[in-house]
UniProtKB/TrEMBL annotation:
CDD domains on file: AdoMet_MTases (cd02440)
Protein name per the record: Methyltransferase type 11 domain-containing protein
Annotated organism of origin: Candidatus Ghiorseimicrobium undicola
Signal peptide: none
InterPro entries tied to this protein: SAM-dependent_MTases_sf
Organism classification: Bacteria, Pseudomonadati, Candidatus Omnitrophota, Candidatus Ghiorseimicrobium
Superkingdom in the source lineage: Bacteria
PANTHER family with a match to the protein in the record: METHYLTRANSFERASE TYPE 11, TRANS-ACONITATE 2-METHYLTRANSFERASE-RELATED
Length: 221
């Protein structure tokens, strides 16, 4: 779930103005991408929760009911100019497989935009260090339906190994005024800890492959 006090407008501004067909993966009730339909974009949503799917059908051009990890879409190669994942990857068992599968439906000149929660957010770290807790909730960063967690490095690797090149990353900074001032005093060194979500824009990179990317050493504890 996207936090109420977010920057949804900043996220939607990452969608190219010339995009005519958009796939909203995990569209919920369609409220976010309905704004794009208002400006003339043909919006198709995917949603597995039936109640939300029914609501979205009244807002979007088309809505497909189903789990995106086990769903084949009835669209030809390169049909969509943009594919949007608004707080979706953290709910998927294999987000990389979804990205690879959806490459087929993305126009060669199209792009993907995604909002992804940042597990390095300072409140998560403070609770873990000071209280020793990792408490799941009904919504937010530790939504109990989250099965994947990402830092910035993990996000970059996710796109690189699935054949995409990141062209833009924005931050949804959420923090008290004093923390923002402290960040300025430290020459923006705290920005990753104040980032609640990363907004990523990526395009197909037909010259890249998983095999060509140098592996990073992952420590086991």
């Amino acid at each position: 779930m996207i936090k109420k006090k977010d920057k949804r407008c900043d996220f939607l501004k990452m969608i190219p103005l010339n995009a005519k067909r958009l796939l909203d993966v995990g569209c919920g009730d369609g409220g976010l991408s309905a704004r794009l339909k208002e400006r003339g974009v043909e919006v198709t949503g995917i949603e597995k929760i039936e109640k939300l799917c029914s609501i979205a059908k009244g807002k979007l051009n088309d809505v497909i009911s189903g789990d995106i990890e086990n769903l084949q879409l009835p669209y030809p190669c390169g049909y969509f100019d943009c594919i949007m994942y608004a707080d979706v990857f953290e709910h998927l068992m294999e987000p990389s497989e979804a990205l690879i599968k959806h490459r087929f439906y993305l126009n060669d000149n199209g792009c993907i935009i995604a909002s992804i929660p940042n597990v390095r957010y300072y409140k998560i770290i403070l609770r873990l260090i000071l209280a020793g807790t990792w408490d799941y909730a009904d919504a937010g960063m530790l939504d109990r339906s989250h099965v994947r967690f990402f830092g910035l490095v993990n996000i970059i690797e996710l796109f690189n190994r699935t054949g995409y090149g990141i062209i833009e990353i924005r931050r949804n900074i959420v923090g008290g005024r004093w923390l923002k001032i402290l960040n300025l005093l430290f020459f923006n060194a705290l920005k990753d800890f104040l980032t609640y979500q990363y907004y990523v824009k990526a395009e197909k990179n037909n010259n890249s492959s998983e095999a060509s990317i140098a592996p990073r050493k992952i420590y086991k504890f």
